[in-house]
Specification:
Layout (H helix, E strand, L loop, with lengths): L2 H15 L4 H8 L3 E10 L5 E12 L5 E2 L2 E4 L4 H17 L6 E7 L7 H15 L8 E2 L8 H15 L26 H13 L6 E5 L3 H10 L4 E7 L2 E4 L6 H11 L9 E3 L1 H5 L5 E4 L18 E3 L8 H9 L3 E3 L1 H4 L1 H16 L5 H26 L3 H14 L5
Parallel strand pairs: 3-6, 4-5, 7-8, 7-11, 11-12, 12-13
Antiparallel strand pairs: 1-2, 2-5, 8-9, 9-10
Helix pairs in contact: 1-2, 1-3, 1-14, 3-14, 4-5, 6-7, 6-12, 6-13, 12-13, 13-14
The structure holds glutamic acid (GLU).
Length: 404
């Protein structure tokens, strides 16, 4: 089963459990619009390459479509569909007036130069600009895209619609501060995850394992290591372990210098699959989908799984973990900090305001605290796992908007 089928199966299940209106379930099982484009890009060596990209707009009942753009060789339509669906639910869980969308370009950014990435980004925006906009669909960063890519998007969008950049800042979030971005957006996914975890349990001296050392995993490691012990982390090249806790500041430097966490002094190497099964208090998948599956779920020894990645746990694994008493803090709650601060950025752009870091962090803390209580409350009320609780909550909220 692919991730899109997985996502739909959870919607069906939550729909039944939450006694959600059948029409709404059918609406959410369908995607409103899918844009599939192929576009040419001049490479540095003068050759021309055709790239393939998607923008999927799942649902806009609560507001404009919202969601990141991912650059990865494995991007495919079903993955982008699932990610778009999760965005609709995530925005509803976080109480944001936004719908769900997602985009992706099939490419390997690690093998492309900065100028090639810029031309590819602009080519993609040329191909989809009619379908995005500050009140229509608002992209953001996701796997292997960052604030610089978002800056190229505003520039290209402004050019295509014949407006000044300042007039269309709200077309994309996750921009750098100098491009009209918000304080706190870069750290928001990790910080939001930390707020969720702290609402759920005391983190002092707890043992944490993090799979993935991109924006979310790295920043989370930095924040949580102030109170807890990060005993293992991994990235796409491998994993490292140190029982007494890794020095995260040093590790970040090591990764910046060498391109990987592997080879960090004073640590031993560990295979990704072994890392997931380590004895720990909190396991944090912070990379890609479907890493906790039927194959390894019965061997997960963590008490809590905090999903900073989207879709890291398959529905079969969910069942096993729930039966074994492992608590999941599901993606559509745990990583909603990113889109929450994206929303704050968008509001600032639309109103021409600039908020302080303190204000953004305070608002994020409040939002994540409330959402966590609501999700846990719903799961308890229905006696189901936290993911189903979050789905039911989201579906009820989307359903409250008028069906036309
Ligand atoms: N890509 C992030 C996510 O999956 C952020 C989306 C956004 O800020 O719009 O939640």
């Amino acid at each position: 089963m692919n991730v899109y089928e997985n996502a739909k199966s959870v919607i069906r299940r939550a729909g039944e459990i939450g006694k959600i209106d059948d029409d709404l379930i059918r609406i959410l099982l369908n995607i409103q619009k899918e844009i599939h484009v192929r576009f040419p890009v001049k490479m540095d060596d003068g050759s021309l390459r055709i790239f393939e990209g998607y923008r999927v707009q799942h649902n806009n009942f609560l507001g404009p479509y919202k969601g990141g753009i991912r650059y990865h060789p494995d991007v495919d339509i079903n993955e982008v569909r699932a990610l778009a669906m999760w965005m609709s639910l995530k925005c509803a869980v976080a109480g944001l007036p936004l719908g769900g969308g997602k985009g992706g370009v099939v490419c390997n950014p690690k093998e492309m130069s900065r100028t090639e990435l810029e031309r590819m980004t602009k080519g993609f925006i040329d191909a989809i600009y009619l379908d995005i906009g500050p009140e229509k669909d608002i992209p953001a960063p996701d796997v292997y895209t960052n604030s610089e890519v978002m800056g190229w998007i505003v520039d290209e969008y402004a050019k295509q619609v014949g407006k000044k950049k300042e007039e269309v800042l709200g077309v994309v979030t996750g921009k750098s501060l100098s491009d009209g971005g918000s304080e706190g957006r870069g750290e928001a996914t990790a910080r939001g995850g930390e707020f969720v975890l702290m609402e759920f349990m005391a983190v002092k001296d707890k043992k944490i394992v993090i799979q993935g050392f991109g924006n979310a995993g790295r920043v989370f490691a930095k924040l949580i290591s102030k109170n807890a012990r990060v005993i293992a982390v991994s990235d796409s090249k491998g994993g490292i372990y140190k029982g007494e806790g890794l020095n995260i500041e040093e590790l970040i430097k090591h990764k910046e210098e060498t391109g990987s966490v592997v080879g960090f002094r004073d640590s031993s190497e560990i295979e990704n699959n072994e890392l997931l099964k380590l004895e720990c208090d909190v396991l944090v998948p912070a990379a890609l989908e479907s890493v906790i599956t039927l194959e390894n779920a019965s061997e997960i020894k963590a008490g809590v799984v905090l999903e900073l990645a989207n879709g890291p746990t398959t529905p079969e694994a969910d069942e096993i973990l729930f039966k074994r008493g492992v608590q999941i803090l599901p993606d559509i709650l745990a990583n909603a900090g990113g889109v929450s601060v994206s929303y704050f950025e968008w509001v600032q752009n639309m109103r021409g305001e600039k908020w302080s870091k303190e204000k953004v962090d305070e608002m994020l803390k409040e939002k994540m605290g409330v959402a966590t209580k609501e999700v846990l409350g719903k799961a308890k009320e229905l006696n189901v796992n936290n993911r189903l609780g979050a789905y039911v909550l989201a579906m009820e909220r989307i359903g409250r908007t008028q069906l036309q």
